[in-house]
Design a protein that fits this description.
alpha+beta, globular, 9-stranded antiparallel sheet, 4-stranded parallel sheet
Length: 407
């Protein structure tokens, strides 16, 4: 891939994604797959006048080794230096950039029950720091190709060709055009217009149906609104959390979901795939989960904590999105969720509450935002999906028909 194109992508991530501010610290989290591109992102952050850029590397095989050899107690321990680091982030509010490239099967065979037990020990210690940063940080998630990921997506190609093809797909769906910043300005305006229309309806619940058996009704929080594209932090800084993105999303009312929903794409969770699954809800809670592949892992995920069995997000994405039209199954949630309507189990988004900047995180949760240590998107959209909005004035408005916007 031409370096000039990659530099435009790096600039997009820094300027439009995280929107790094003068004098701000930047945290970059990346795998070892594309160090040259990470270097470009670091350089762009300094061009944006970042005061300091810190890169934290990850490597899936090391994660498997640590889990194999450490005890649950050791894995679940949060050291004093780790607490100090989190406190530093609370005090300085750095911008976060996540560059993902991991192998969808890279953690296959890892003891997920051990990982879950350790996460439950760490979560209550780390949660207060996360709550203090809620809504304050700019952050963005973008992707770069990894060799194993590229071969998973394009199994019939040589590794080098597969990586190049994945680069092309990432850049196309991320709108890296001749002028990416202008393309994203127009894209954000389009998503905002759709959200404005949805918010004008006064939606009380959404009813999902499809010919695969999906029949689910999800209740909305009266104070919640649809959001999408870019958002503004509590510090007044506009940023784009996901590159790419196609969704209009909202956090539903905890405890208000009835029926069954069927997945339409694999879910990559903790480096392993869960495929062809269904989840049945009663009184908002997932009470039954079945999967052709990864059923035990699915149930482990749903039982991570009390909130993991409840919905945290309803997202609307048309079949006509660029990612869906590419015909590529990415085996990566960042992309696959933007090719399909999806739901998320676990934590809801406080920033979907109207005027959330004037409310505390606890006030948002009291209104009905779900709280959990996980937030896992799973895809449910298909060509026969219909979504009806049942509105507070008693009317019913079809907002999705045959997998696409009905307006």
């Amino acid at each position: 891939m031409k370096k000039s194109v990659l530099r435009e992508y790096a600039k997009l991530i820094v300027r439009c994604g995280a929107n790094v501010q003068k004098g701000q610290e930047v945290m970059i989290y990346a795998d070892l797959d594309q160090p040259e591109f990470v270097q470009m992102v670091v350089e762009e952050a300094y061009k944006a006048k970042a005061s300091k850029v810190i890169v934290e590397w990850d490597y899936q095989p090391l994660g498997k080794i640590h889990v194999r050899h450490q005890s649950v107690k050791t894995l679940g321990t949060v050291s004093e230096w780790q607490k100090a680091r989190r406190q530093h982030m609370v005090d300085t509010v750095p911008a976060r950039i996540h560059l993902i490239s991991e192998d969808p099967d890279g953690l296959k065979g890892m003891n997920m029950k051990k990982v879950a037990a350790a996460s439950k020990l760490r979560y209550p210690i780390l949660k207060p720091y996360a709550d203090q940063l809620e809504g304050k940080q700019q952050w963005t998630i973008a992707a770069v190709p990894g060799k194993a990921w590229a071969k998973k997506v394009f199994p019939g190609l040589r590794t080098s060709v597969a990586v190049e093809k994945l680069w092309e797909a990432i850049l196309f769906t991320s709108r890296v055009t001749d002028d990416p910043l202008k393309a994203w300005e127009e894209h954000n305006a389009n998503i905002k217009a759709r959200c404005d229309y949805l918010n004008s309806l006064g939606i009380e619940s959404l009813h999902y149906t499809a010919d695969n058996g999906t029949d689910l009704t999800v209740g909305m929080i009266p104070e919640a609104i649809f959001c999408g594209g870019g958002e503004t932090s509590r510090m007044g800084i506009f940023f784009n959390p996901n590159i790419p993105t196609e969704e209009c999303f909202i956090s539903p009312m905890k405890g208000k979901a009835e029926g069954i929903v069927y997945s339409t794409k694999p879910l990559s969770y903790q480096g392993q795939l869960i495929e062809n699954f269904s989840i049945r809800f009663e009184k908002g809670k997932a009470v039954e989960a079945r999967a052709e592949k990864g059923e035990e892992l699915l149930n482990t995920m749903i039982s991570m904590d009390e909130g993991a069995a409840y919905l945290g997000e309803c997202a609307l994405v048309p079949e006509a999105s660029p990612i869906a039209e590419s015909g590529i199954l990415f085996y990566n949630t960042l992309f696959d969720e933007n090719a399909s309507c999806h739901l998320a189990l676990g934590m809801g988004y406080a920033d979907t509450i109207r005027d959330h900047h004037s409310k505390s995180i606890e006030e948002c949760r009291q209104l009905g935002i779900n709280d959990s240590m996980i937030h896992e998107d799973f895809m449910i959209g298909c060509a026969t999906m219909k979504i009806d909005a049942i509105c507070r004035d008693g009317s019913t408005v079809t907002i999705f028909e045959n997998g696409n916007w009905a307006f």
